[in-house]
Design goal:
Oligomer: single chain
Strand content: under 5%
Shape: flat
Helix content: 55-70%
Length: 233
């Protein structure tokens, strides 16, 4: 079944196959070279999980990658130039924290956000909301403004806005009171709409028994295959 799903190129299973070949998980015989080749194939498609694994490999010397901070920096720059959310986010984090070969520069990070907002980048809009909500990245803290901006992005179906509101409802912030019941309702709403990120988040919570979901291996199996049948995973 795992091979069949991998052949269908379902990403959650392709990732599992890479991990299985690397570590001998899920019934796979360890084969680091095969894992590396499969990982590179997914990197060429700009799959975020694959880019993350390659970056980790270049920084730590794992997954058959030699340690190469210049190559790690170049990987991020290539993806940022292509405009992928992963590349933009990693470059932004590099500027904020002085990582990945970037010098720490909060002003440049803020400029990157504004530049991406002008390109209608939904991720950048959420970063600005977080900046306004927390007083980060050179923005003046204003939770009311952050709340209103976030609700506006939710109406536009910005996927990062849904994630941010869910986090705000589970932890409090951005003018929202902590309300795990409302957070779960929001998650269920997004799962029913076919939101892949929401489906993956629900799967994680069932596995761990969080936010009112009962921990159950059978429930994980049933939900996973139901979402695969619907094409959500």
């Amino acid at each position: 079944m795992t091979e069949f799903l991998a052949a269908l190129n379902i990403q959650i299973t392709v990732k599992n196959k890479v991990e299985g070949l690397l570590h001998g998980y899920y019934g796979y015989t360890p084969d680091v070279k095969a894992a590396h080749a499969l990982l590179e194939r997914e990197v060429s498609k700009s799959k975020p999980w694959a880019l993350e694994m390659k970056l980790e490999g270049l920084l730590s010397g794992s997954h058959l990658y030699p340690i190469n901070e210049i190559a790690a920096h170049d990987l991020i720059e290539i993806e940022a130039t292509k405009g992928t959310p992963w590349g933009i986010e990693k470059k932004w984090k590099g500027l904020i924290k002085g990582r990945y070969g970037y010098e720490k520069n909060e002003a440049a990070a803020g400029e990157l956000i504004e530049l991406e907002i002008n390109k209608n980048n939904p991720w950048a809009k959420i970063m600005k909301i977080k900046g306004v909500g927390q007083g980060w990245f050179g923005y003046i803290k204003n939770e009311t403004a952050a709340h209103d901006l976030l609700e506006e992005e939710i109406r536009k179906n910005n996927p990062w806005a849904i994630e941010t509101k869910f986090e705000a409802l589970t932890e409090g912030g951005y003018g929202y009171e902590k309300n795990e019941s409302a957070a779960r309702d929001l998650l269920e709403q997004e799962v029913n709409r076919g939101n892949i990120n929401a489906a993956e988040r629900k799967l994680l919570y069932i596995k761990r028994g969080l936010y009112g979901y009962q921990q159950s291996r059978n429930a994980v199996h049933d939900f996973l295959y139901a979402e695969i049948d619907k094409g959500n995973l």
